[in-house]
Amino acid sequence: MKKMMLTATALMLLASCGNNEKEYDATGTFEATETTVSAEQSGTLMRFDVNEGDKIELGKEVGLVDTTQLWLKISQMNATKAVYRSQKPDMDKQIAATRQQLVKARRDEQRYRELVADGAAPAKMLDDAISMVAVLQKQLDAQISTLNTQLTTLDSQQSTVDAQVNQLRDQLQKCHIVSPVNGTVLEKYVEQGEFVATGKPLFKIADTEQMYIRAYVTSAQLKNIKTGQRAKVFADYGDGQRKEYEGTVTWISNRSEFTPKTILTDDERADLVYALKVAVKNDGYIKIGMYGEVKFIQAP
């Protein structure tokens, strides 16, 4: 009988110890990476296919800002470029006459050089021929320099127009509102038909498939935790209902902070704690702001 009483007492003590042992090492709330998508161009919102709760894929176009004025400016720039193109001089045609005169002058110079050598013509005629060749050569060089300057100026003006057109096309591309990530729309800030200015928030989207729980641990716990470490994460639905997920520690703060009043730690007497994040693959049941618990798995 005494043996049975001792056994029962031992079982009660074990049960009591088991009840005092926590099933978790840290607690916190679930979060997701949220992105606020803002307008990159000003104008009337011609189309906006966004509703709260919608799941949107990366790169999907969900809206369009009015592009009329940008298209008109591009057309104007293209017309200006055509004018510059038409003003380009035809160098070969414009210097053809001077070049032909120079060829003739050189032939005359050669002929007079032979006549003077034979004593059939005075030396002055040769001097005049040499002078004419020099004058025509300078005229040709001046024409070529002037035409090259005109071509360079027109090419520069065309390059400026091309740069302006590229800027307008970039602005035109930014009129198309696309989702920067895969995610779920959390909030919608504008409606179709509204005028939006550059930088105005349009909607907020979050990746709710890859979520994480932000929890806090004491310095005593921190020595046994490192990034990449596996953990068990429990989503608390209330009334004792929990669901377990596999998690991985992805971030540990390098700076301590005072214990937030809304969280619990393993050592409630600790004044300073460290924040960390444990990534979790969401199956659709975890919601942003939901309470959760973390149990770190120690390597064997």
Description:
- The protein is of the alpha+beta class and 300 residues long.
- It is built from 5 helices and 15 strands.
- It has helices spanning 2-20, 68-86, 91-118, 123-174, 219-222, and strands at residues 26-31, 34-38, 43-48, 55-56, 61-65, 176-178, 183-188, 195-196, 201-206, 210-217, 230-238, 241-252, 257-258, 272-281, 291-296.
- The strands form 3 sheets. A 6-stranded antiparallel barrel has the order 1-10-14-12-11-15. Strands 2-9-7-4 form a 4-stranded antiparallel beta sheet, with no helix packed on it.
- Helix 2 (68-86) runs antiparallel to helix 4 and helix 3 runs antiparallel to helix 4 (123-174).
- Residues 1-20 have low confidence and may be disordered.
Unreliable residue stretches: 1-20
End-to-end CA span: 42 Å
* Gyration radius, in Å: 41 Å
Element pattern in H and E: HEEEEEHHHEEEEEHEEEEE
Strand arrangement across the biggest beta sheet = 1-10-14-12-11-15
Beta strand %: 25-35%
What is the secondary structure topology, with strand pairs?
Elements: H1 2-20, E1 26-31, E2 34-38, E3 43-48, E4 55-56, E5 61-65, H2 68-86, H3 91-118, H4 123-174, E6 176-178, E7 183-188, E8 195-196, E9 201-206, E10 210-217, H5 219-222, E11 230-238, E12 241-252, E13 257-258, E14 272-281, E15 291-296
Antiparallel strand pairs: 1-10, 1-15, 2-9, 3-5, 3-8, 4-7, 5-6, 7-9, 10-14, 11-12, 11-15, 12-14, 13-14
Quick recap of the structure?
The protein is an alpha+beta fold and 300 residues long.
Structural descriptors:
6-stranded antiparallel β-barrel; 41% helix; 300 residues; alpha+beta; 5 helices; 4-stranded antiparallel beta sheet
